[in-house]
Write a structure and sequence with these properties.
single chain, 3-stranded antiparallel sheet, 25% helix
Length: 138
């Protein structure tokens, strides 16, 4: 069995962003040479997420509004965590959106549904953060 590891780095301009990283993962898969196996892709920061969904701007806006309803950023004082930081909401948003995805690899391609895309979700941005791509298989 072969294995491949790569870190993808991101620095967003905004506190919250959704970035489609499907092409970067497909490039990692091509570079790995693996034709059959699994890809694990996970955020390596506790205020960021990796998830799979549709790449549709209205849906992304809906995510933003929904997440803000269940874990509003402000007022900062509503969270006990926010004694030295102001990112308690980002921790909660990450928990809801998830830490990682696992994607099957078949015949050298991502084995995903027709509308499925992989996203990096940033909830406390403006600094460098990374996503791990680990591929195992033959």
């Amino acid at each position: 069995m072969k294995s491949y590891r790569k870190e993808l780095w991101f620095q967003t301009k905004n506190r919250r962003e959704f970035i489609n990283i499907t092409r970067e993962i497909e490039k990692c898969l091509a570079d790995s040479g693996i034709k059959e196996g699994l890809i694990l892709c996970n955020a390596m920061h506790i205020t960021a997420s990796v998830f799979i969904n549709d790449d549709e701007s209205g849906l992304h806006d809906d995510f933003e509004k929904w997440l803000e309803k269940i874990a509003p950023e402000k007022p900062y004082s509503q969270y006990r965590h926010n004694g030295f930081e102001d990112n308690a909401d980002a921790h909660m948003k990450r928990t809801v959106m998830g830490r990682e995805v696992v994607i099957a690899v078949s015949q050298g391609k991502l084995d995903a549904g027709p509308w499925e895309q992989v996203f990096y979700g940033e909830f406390d941005g403006k600094r460098k953060k990374r996503v791990l791509v680990k591929i195992i298989g033959e």
